[in-house]
Amino acid sequence: MKQSFIEGAVIVSAGGIAAKILGAFYRIPLTNLLGGQGMGVYQMVYPLYCLLLTLASAGVPAGLSRIVSVWEARGVPSRGVLSRALLLFGAVGGAGSLLMLAAAGGVSALQGEPAAAEAYRMLAPSVFLVALISCFRGWFQGRHNFLPTALSETAEQAVKAALGLSFAYVFRADVYRAVSYALLSVTASELFALLLLVALSLPAKKPLYAPASPPAKSVFRVTLPVAAAAGVLPLSHFADSVLIVRLLARAGIDATAQYGLFAGAASTLVNLPASVCYGLAAAVVPAVSAARAQGGSGGREIAFALKCTLFVSLPAAAFLLAFPGQTCAFLFRSVAGEEGRLLAGLVRALSPSAVLLAAAQTLSACLTGCGRPRAAACSMAAGVAVKLALEAALLSVPAVGIFGAAYAADACYLVALLLNLYYSIRGSRLRAGQSGLAGKIGAAGRVGSHTETRGPQAEAGGPPIWADALRFLLFSALAVGAAWAPAEAHVLWGLAAAGGAYLALSWLFRAFSAEELSFIARKKFRKRRTG
Predict the structure, then answer these.
(1) Distance CA 86, CA 131 (A)
(2) Where are the beta strands (DSSP E) in 48-155?
């Protein structure tokens, strides 16, 4: 069942929201059960895991969706792409799992927590499983079917939460054992998600293997640059797990606990808007790729995805900036006293990242859809370089401490966003004054000598992106002001008041024009007409 660009974005975003809600309900009691020390060990294991996941699977959903969408747009069956990807990335994921098993002892000793080795071993099989999961998700998304991705993400989080909290409670007397078995629940959840995706692919009544497969070289040529772009950030997180802990410990600070608050609680909360906007990033890749394969530019989809990202992430960042203490006190009730104040300060310091990371993520996906994933990789690499340099300079300053990691993260995402904007404008000749839905992407839309044709209405200039950003920022500030009194009573009342005020202002001042809404309707009508 195919969906349009907006339908796909909504489905993946809804699945992402459901998964993140489950993840939040999981993280909050898990933090209460494991405490700062246990969460520090829990988070220490994730950077290497995320790095291996990136090498094995990070570029697969976006890269495969681009290949599959092009094949489907040209009328070529795409099941061969799936079979080829399963063989290639299954082998890469298996190698990643074996590497994690072999490196468990050495890496945990390097991090200063030898007892974490067992946790690494419990999590290692997930690398192989996620590599296969990514192949299925990329294949479904390239065929404009985003429902399996949403269902598998939600089911994955549900299984992880149920098993993880059970294990953490049963083994709560031994924090290291509780962490190890909580990570075993991650492996079990990935296995469940993989079986679900296999079951969803079977109704096609065709074998998973198909002889008409693309050459391995062509698959890697698309996915490897995307993996490089996605892998830079997990690599920096692995460096963080070593750099932050060692620099803080040198200053006599409880480094493991503070790193756990930063990476396990503050970063998770601030990254939530980017997770919600992931649906836009996932949907824009096949939409742009298919449009370009048919001779268009995909410019309207790119502009609309960026505008929607700002619409969602700006009010979230404003709310976290204004009410970090109330939010953390509600979500992380066991983190009180000095640790609670530290966590609230970290959330406030990281709040700009809520919008910077979301916008950088969406533009990276747009560059991938346009066939320029190397530009996205360069942008994130430059951001990470700035981040590591700032961490090395700030973490050693006693007056700054762990907040140096927060400021460095903000700078990282800002640099990545600005460079992604530069590459998008330069590569597609985006006119700065027409960056709204009606903004044009000129020469980049050409395939051969054919260019996307637009009617007079589509050529009309829309508001520039910076104007949309300022308008959403003003709406966010007014919404936060409306929430100030209700938030004193309870943060949920404040959230409801802020959300209601923001939506009312958006409707009253027409955040989305009639042309933008009619564009969505035309896309759906055109899809139904053409079958």
Answers:
(1) 8
(2) none
- Token pair belonging to 382: 């430059």
Q: Which residues fall within 8 angstroms of residue 315, CB to CB, at 6 or more apart?
A: 472, 475, 476, 479, 498, 499, 502
149-208 per-position pLDDT tens digit: 889 989 999 999 999 999 988 988 888 888 889 999 999 999 999 999 999 887 654 555
* Tens of pLDDT, residues 410-448: 999 999 999 988 887 775 554 334 443 334 333 333 323
DSSP, res 460: S
Give the length of the chain. Answer: 531
The CA distance from 60 to 378, in Å, is 19
Bridge partners of 450? 447
- For 369, the token pair is 């859809």
> pTM of this prediction?
0.70
Packing angle between helix 216-250 and helix 337-369, nearest 10 degrees?
A: 160
Q: What is the model's pLDDT at position 433?
A: 40
Give whole-number Cα distances, 112 to 39, 238, 240, 516, in Å. Answer: 15, 14, 13, 54
In whole angstroms, give the CA distance from residue 166 to residue 172.
Answer: 10
CA triple 184-186-187, angle to 5 deg? 70
Mean pLDDT on 62-75 = 73
Q: Side chain identity at 133, as an amino acid letter?
A: I
CA triple 488-489-495, angle to 5 deg: 80
CA angle 319, 321, 326 (to 5 degrees): 70
